[in-house]
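2024-03-11 09:14:02 INFO receiving multi-entity request
2024-03-11 09:14:02 INFO entity count = two
2024-03-11 09:14:03 INFO echoing inputs for audit
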Amino acid sequence: MDMLINPTVVELSRLQFALTALYHFLFVPLTLGLTFLLATMESVYVITGKPIYKEMTQFWGKLFAINFALGVATGLTMEFEFGTNWSMYSHFVGDIFGTPLAIEGLMAFFMESTFVGIMFFGWDRISAKAHLVVTYLVALGSNLSALWILIANGFMQDPRGGTFDPNTMRLEFSSFVQLIFNEDAQAKFVHTSIAGFVTGSMFVMGISAFYLLTNKRKDIALRSFRIAAVFGVISTIGVVTLGDALGFIDAKAQPMKVAAMEAIWNTDYNTASAPWNLIAFPDKAAGKNLFEIGVPYVLTPLLTHSEDTVIPGIHQLVDEAKPKVVNGIKAMVALKEYNHDHSNVQALATFKQYQTDMGYGFLAMQYAPDQDLKKVDASNLASVVDKTAHETVPNVWVEFWAFRIMVAFGFIMLAIFAFAAYFSLKNEVEKHPLLLKVALWSIPLPWFACEFGWITAENGRQPWTVYNMLPTFVSASSHSVGYMIFSLIGFVLLYSSFIAAEMYLMFKYARLGPQASHHGHDQAPAGGGMAGQPAFAKPSLAKK
Amino acid sequence: MKNLFTFVGMALIMALSLFLAVITGDYGPWYFAWLVGTTMIVLIAVAGAVMYEKQDAESQGKTGRLH
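2024-03-11 09:21:47 INFO inference complete, emitting structure
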């Protein structure tokens, strides 16, 4: 830590990671959801023996393949980014963070990738039932990938299962069970996975609506619409339920995130009547909301599922952080002395006394003269403590609005799916062109919700990479500003070309529709599955 | 013999399900919820599709229409 940390490099590293993560997350939800929708369609094929469901599985599978390839490519980049741009972070938590990532690569990702090949090319080579098992394994594999990533992320949000070793300067495993059964990881996995189900459902339903509006392959469109609408309405209810569970868990584990999410500056001890801010314009510098519309009697039951739990405001949490900063400075100074001389028992004892608040000492480095905590003395201690304590507050405006946009899109989608499922189950969806148009134009909604949800989760964790333990400020690599700008421009150019290719292929094959794309490859007769026995339908069921 | 294998296979699935229910039910309630919930979502969506086939067959019977 002798070399000064350049805040510009840290900010550019954050920007680069945020862009690549948000970009990667454009592909992930569709993969998570579409795989299970494909499994659903194929299940109907195996149960009913109707070839049209095989054609549906193959058509939507083609769109899945386009998305899957880019999801894998952009995911790999991010794993390397931990090493290149976040070397201090990787050193500090690599023992814990690296393990779920390795399991994800070895178990889930390999499983997913292997079975994807069989899923695409095995239609005529294995029986229908065996192929269905393969499709389910692809779905399970893609969601298990997400599981291990979110277990790693859960540790960043609520670090459990690791202890800091002052000899190696690393967080090391103390409990694998605590890591994987972390409440944050559990709730976030289910929330994220089912958000993927919603994304897949809206994608299939919206494109099916387009076919119904343009009178194209109505046989496939109506069936796809039905499956997606039913799948989507239940999934959206699940997402809302898990979002509530995640908020409940965060209220205990990350009170500052929740206070920022709800723009609560002052603790309201009238817990039952505490207002929930429907709209607010938070001003971090002023430490208040410039404007707010609150709904009384909603906040406490919503966040804590009780009427008498006090929700601490941002100002109270800042005040509570101040003694932690003082202790953290003592811990870090002792740790540095111990690192120079491992026989210094007194330094080790002092460190262990204040170890719990070590992260706040790390955080104070940016306000210490020359980033050296030894230079913090009686003359500047109060100033360093005050600035550091206020640094623990994330960007409240971003947190508040990202959360609300996510929630609003979630409820809009719930309404759309509810109407869609209702009219589809009554077999009247064609009588409601407005609903079909809304479904079509709502295709981007789940992506916006997912991206804003991710912003809520990660912006709310700031200023930490590992909550209360390792600040973002000390986590980045010591690259030059020029290097960061160069690599950032490279990413923007490369990823822009990727997204252009993805959008082109998606629009092309979605517009072509099942019939056109099917004819291009399988030479089946016109009229689709119901109009005869297409070539691809013969082998697998006939093998039984 | 085939029936025996089916029985053993089903028994293994049941044992695994009970094991998962006990372990994840205690330590990972949300993981368990995901397993049960995802299965339920898929099954209900499949049921929706099967229901569509019945409705389609009935409407074909009434109108001779083909979807």
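2024-03-11 09:21:48 INFO post-check: Strands of chain A lie at 162-165, 170-173, 276-283, 288-295, 464-466, 470-471.
2024-03-11 09:21:48 INFO post-check: DSSP finds 19 helices and six strands in chain A.
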